[in-house]
Design brief:
heterodimer, A: mainly beta, five-stranded antiparallel sheet, about 0% helix, B: mainly beta, seven-stranded mixed sheet, four-stranded antiparallel sheet, 11 strands, about 50% strand, globular
Chain lengths: ~110, ~120
């Protein structure tokens, strides 16, 4: 079993929809949680970064972390065709995890249709 | 530079050959990471440098893989006796410093194809 599980999709939604993406994990040492967006043939781009449990909002994006359930989510409001990409969750245990090495999910492929 | 750069962007080689992949991190970033991303998968950690030294190389799959960062800036990932299973995108990331939870910024990757 992988340390981080993420549904690979693909997920197809109409423009303007609210998108919900999520990951579960098994390593209770994870303290730092990130969402990256990756366009085809590009490197991952950091979208959201949270520490421990709680919510964080940035524009149309909201990240939620529930450490008790080992579950993290990313919500995208008013989705746009330009949001079509692969979304990767990533997490680290911080310094105790060997210098913040990231453990990624497989990525969820999202397509926002006109 | 403005971001992490990696060269070459694509590399095609034959089984058994030696390859070098280069990473130029964001100026001033002391922490540097290498990851490998296979098709349809998330990136997997290979090695982490803090300054010139490899602080964690636990992700290197075997002794055919080696990385250096002699002056604490540019890093080179070296793969000897390449195998078809080494085909993947090799990603480099840098971080301002290796504080707990330091944000990592990724380059565009080098797509390695071993024929």
């Amino acid at each position: 079993q992988k340390e981080v599980e993420q549904d690979p999709g693909p997920l197809s939604v109409p423009e303007g929809a609210i998108v919900s993406l999520n990951c579960t994990y098994s390593n209770s040492a994870f303290q730092y949680f990130m969402w990256y967006r990756q366009y085809s043939r590009k490197g991952p781009e950091l979208l959201m970064y949270t520490y421990s449990s709680g919510n964080k909002e940035d524009g149309r994006f909201t990240a939620q972390v529930d450490k008790s359930s080992k579950y993290i989510s990313l919500f995208i409001r008013d989705s746009q065709p330009s949001d079509s990409a692969t979304y990767l969750c990533a997490m680290s245990a911080g310094l105790t995890g060997g210098g913040n090495k990231l453990t990624f999910g497989t990525g969820t492929q999202l397509k926002v249709e006109l | 530079g403005a971001g992490v750069s990696q060269t070459p962007s694509n590399k095609v080689t034959e089984k058994g050959k030696y390859v070098e992949l280069r990473c130029d991190p964001i100026s001033g970033h002391t922490a540097l990471y290498w990851y490998r991303q296979s098709l349809g998968q998330g990136p997997e950690f290979l090695i982490y440098f803090q300054g010139t030294g490899a602080a964690d190389d636990s992700g290197l799959p075997n002794d055919r893989f080696f990385a250096v960062r002699p002056e604490g800036s540019v890093s080179t990932l070296k793969i000897q006796r390449t195998e078809r299973g080494d085909s993947a995108v090799y990603l480099c990331a840098s971080s301002l410093r290796s504080l707990a939870g330091g944000e990592q910024f990724f380059g565009p990757g080098t797509r390695l194809t071993v024929l």
